[in-house]
Amino acid sequence: MTNNLKVIVIGGGHNGLVCASYLAKAGLSVQILEARDSVGGACAPIIDNNGNKLAGLAHASYGLNMQILKDLDLPALPIQLSLDTISLSEDGSHITFANNSVSGRKISERDSKSYRGFIEEFKKYSEALDVLTTNIPPRLKDMDWHDKKTLIKIGWNLRFGLGKKLMREFLRVGGINIFDVLNEKFDDPAIKGAIAFDAVLGHKMGPRTPNTVLSYLQKISFGENNSLCRSDNLSTLLEEKAKSLGVKILTNSKIDRIIIEDGICKGVKLESAEIFKSDLVISNADAKTTFLKFVGTEYLDAMFSHRVDSIRQEGAVARINLCLKALPKDQNLEGDKLFQRLIIAPDMQYVEHAFNHSKYGEYSDHPILEMIINRVEDRGPSVNSITATISASFAPYDLKGGWGKNRNLFVNRVFETIEKYIPGFNNLVKSYELLTPCDIEEQYNCVGGHWHHGEMGIDQSFMMRPVHGSAQYKTPCKNLYLCGASAHPGGGITGLPGHNAAKQIIRAI
Amino acid sequence: MENFDAIVIGAGHNGLTNAAFLAKAGLKVLVLEKNEYIGGATASLELHKNWKYSNCSYVCSLFRPEIYQSLDLGRHGLEVVPLQGSVTFKQDGDYLGSYHQSDLWRREVARHSKKDADAAVRFDADLMKWCRLIRGFLLRTPPDPASFRPRDALEFAFLLKKFYSLSESELYEFIRFFTMSIANYLEQYFESDVILAHFSGGSIIGTGLGVYSPGTAYVLLHHAMGDVDGNVGSWGFARGGMGSVAAALSSSFLSFGGTIRKSSEVKKITVSNQTATGVELVSGEIINANAIISNLDAKRTFLKIIDESDLPEDIVKRAKNFKIRGSSGKVNIALDGMPIFSALPDKSPLTLGHMHFSDTLERLERAYDDWKDDRWSSDPYVDMVIPTQYDPTMAPPGKHMMSVFVQYCPVSPEGGWDDKKKKAFGDTVINQIGDYSPNFKDLILHAEIRTPHEIEKEVGLTEGNIFQGELTLDQLMFNRPFPGYAQYRGPLKRMYMCSSSNHPGGGVMGAPGANAAREILRDFKRKNTTPEDFGDD
């Protein structure tokens, strides 16, 4: 082992930055090659056509995993960036989720008590699974010592951390849909709709789709204190940290190929034909891009390529960047409330109907939405417009008839929907910009434009993420590793895939 | 008054299987049935003069051969006629025929897609692997993951050993198979719409899930378990209709000295000191026994025939949350002659098996979307068979009986069921068949339309769910019916459960009945009479 190993990280998304920082900290010489003109990936701020600086694709997140913040000596996101979630209602009786509680005009005592119990229960599940998310997923056969340790820890946590009763309950609900679980716990349709919204946003799933308990759990597990934050300057923080640890960053460097000789990864070739030789290559790109585009199937086993090709990875969320003429005036959204995370998902049937369309390659008639209006003080000195960002689902990647002329139709559906909940909204829109999953694919170099680099169903999670044969951050090619959201534990702004990958790489060398 | 060792509530096929194994071990067993006929959902009834309808279950696909042998059902008159092939009709007038002969099947697939013909070989081999693995679990009692008893630990060790007979890659593939949707699973193999739809249909039968719902892939096994490994006897029609299954079971049971009382509806299980002591009939009669075994589904057992005050609070809550969702209906039709299908050549053997009319995944999934909103599917998935082609005992000479299973049909459409809606539902199905068969509508002599409402009322299946509880991960194996109660013992002492609400679930399989008998005999310290292992593994 030498400490002077040369490492190339393909892609400077937040996972690439985290992984690079860990490796640099361990004494390796790390070079990040980023295709875009800035690092940060989905966290990097977006500059719209009018020159306004907007939050990145991931405009709200639960923040990086605590362990990573500690290890890399990063500050936790300041509390003033934390966001409540307000689920809008047509009749103005919105409900607010904040600090593990729910409140609103029509919320019954029973439901608000159930909600606290529900969050507590799910927190416990996610704590029990923490060993799994912060570690390399164990193999199920030919286990090494680490795999066994992880498995035993998981078993111990489930049986003794949760206790007999909760463990049984976890084994019951773990594999099913959020629809049934919420129906058992709550009466109020708005609470159920809002929780179901969180379980499905970013995925191509509806509340009734089994696996949505898991996807919700994965979201919850991201939040140490279950509070969403705006992730405005996360990418800058990570970039500075990486640089201070000695990581070299080169932007505008699109990868053409990963160089494989005799099954061993030797470096990368850029589209500019420039060649970077290195001892290790770590890809923060999604598995399909990495294997099918950069490596090429000629260097891979046929069954392996087939599995990678079969990964379900069609994005279903569109992003809309807005410029508003003025702030909306709504008596039910006074003061600070307007700047929280506003969602439209009034009940589970609404969400399910929105999802139905996506199965057939149609966009939702009545989409589910998440909107964040930027605070005045966040606009920056040079900009004088009021801006907002919207995540709108479902807007399938493989839209029937293509996105071309459907772009405006879809945006109109979105605005009409908001108008119903915030009257007068339509007239406030000065200009907008739509990013469909196809645009996201192109701009962020991620096949399918999927938020999480692949659906997070059970069959694409844990030791099967992205596919078995490459689930422990290793790949069939020697010295090539994965560190992006395609790898366990998947998407979200956690930094965990990067952290776990670094752990694996350091262990391997 | 006579004294019984055990009382089985409900003479469905699981109740009878259970009772027969207990009687075989020398217990004195009484079976109580509310209807004037036995069999529950495995019944043959004359609803139209001279026609025998298998009006609920219609194919004898999963009945365990081990049970058939150990209860000697052949000698008691059960004859299963193997079923041949199946066909999916396409909207464009073509069809996909599935033949038993592998050469014919391959050529037929190749006609639709050359690539899929190659994939079919890989697919069959993979499916067969999962079959072999899963079959070993059916006739075993699921272990409790939260327990430390040596028995559970040993059972887990046994299961793990089975799993570890797979290679690492197969292991992951198996987990994926268990958690994927049938559509996504098949899309890894096939490209042709009609082939995808042909295989997918079977995975949604009786469930409240769609072809794109994760967790539907493994249901495919229920279909493959009979016919992939050449075990043809286990996939077919019972001669004389499904009632023959019940008749043979009851004949076997009676030969061991058992007693069956029909028209004896149980009002409640009597309990004292948290111990089940007997049953009280609707007539007021009280019968005591040392073991009370319920063959009713979990909801009926705990919410209808046991007083809430006799049960732990937790159980009542669990029973209320137990998911039993009616999603299917049935149309049984008496035909004046054999219908002609325009797509098929004359005398094609393909009418001998299952017939389907859904040729794309989208049509299947849209049928599910209708049901989610409490409507019956406007373009339903049907599983249609004409058993009289094999079994002339079911209709007069030259005439035919057709059984059409319909997916999806809601428990209660908006405003509830009435005669008008019921007829409209039936017409939807009949019109769909009529689109593919020009003379079909003229041949109809009588049609019986069954919605979940009728199935619940007559057979006693809550919400008309044919599996007595959804087959989703929260209700399978050690979770079925409730976590901690998956070993056939109820929350009361001396009370047991043997219905399809227990592992391994629904279908005319007999396995829950046999497994429950094993546990009861263990508690009674009697010799085990139930089969446990497969000869071929």
Discrete helix count of chain A = 15
For the biggest β-sheet of chain A, the strand order reads 9-8-7-17-18-19-16-20
Mean pLDDT of chain A: 92
Number of DSSP strand runs of chain B? 18
CATH superfamily of the domain at 6-43 and 232-312 and 447-508 in chain A: FAD/NAD(P)-binding domain
Shape of chain B: globular
Amino-to-carboxy terminus distance of chain B: 47 Å
Q: What is the CATH C-level name of the domain at 6-43 and 232-312 and 447-508 in chain A?
A: Alpha Beta
Task: Give me the Rg of chain A, rounded.
Answer: 22 Å
Number of strands of chain A: 21
Helix content of chain B: 25-40%
Overall radius of gyration of chain B: 23 Å
Indicate the CATH architecture of the domain at 6-43 and 232-312 and 447-508 in chain A. 3-Layer(bba) Sandwich
How much of the residues of chain A is beta strand, in percent?
Answer: 15-25%
C-alpha geometry of chain A:
globular
Poorly predicted parts of chain B: 227-234
Q: Biggest chain pair contact, residues each?
A: A-B, 36 and 36 residues
Tally of alpha and pi helices of chain B:
17
What keyword list fits this structure?
heterodimer; A: alpha+beta; FAD/NAD(P)-binding domain; 15 helices; globular; B: 537 residues; 17 helices
List the helices and strands and how they pair.
The complex is a heterodimer of chains A (509) and B (537).
Chain A: E1 6-10, H1 14-25, E2 29-33, E3 46-47, E4 53-54, E5 60-61, H2 66-71, E6 82-83, E7 85-87, E8 95-98, E9 101-104, H3 109-133, H4 145-161, H5 163-173, H6 178-185, H7 189-200, H8 212-222, E10 228-230, H9 234-244, E11 248-250, E12 255-261, E13 264-270, E14 275-277, E15 280-283, H10 287-295, H11 302-309, E16 317-324, E17 341-344, H12 348-359, E18 368-373, E19 386-393, H13 406-421, E20 429-435, H14 437-444, E21 480-482, H15 496-508
Parallel strand pairs in A: 1-2, 1-15, 2-11, 7-17, 15-21
Antiparallel strand pairs in A: 3-4, 5-10, 6-10, 7-8, 8-9, 12-13, 13-14, 16-19, 16-20, 17-18, 18-19
Helix pairs in contact in A: 1-9, 1-15, 3-4, 3-8, 4-5, 6-7, 7-8, 7-12
Chain B: E1 4-9, H1 13-24, E2 29-32, E3 45-48, E4 51-53, H2 65-70, E5 80-82, E6 86-89, E7 95-98, H3 102-112, H4 114-138, H5 150-163, H6 168-179, H7 182-187, H8 193-200, H9 220-227, E8 236-238, H10 243-255, E9 259-261, E10 266-272, E11 275-281, E12 286-294, H11 298-303, H12 313-321, E13 328-335, E14 354-356, H13 361-372, E15 381-385, E16 400-407, H14 419-436, H15 440-443, E17 444-450, H16 452-459, E18 495-497, H17 511-523
Parallel strand pairs in B: 1-2, 1-12, 2-9, 6-14, 12-18
Antiparallel strand pairs in B: 3-4, 5-8, 6-7, 10-11, 11-12, 13-16, 13-17, 15-16
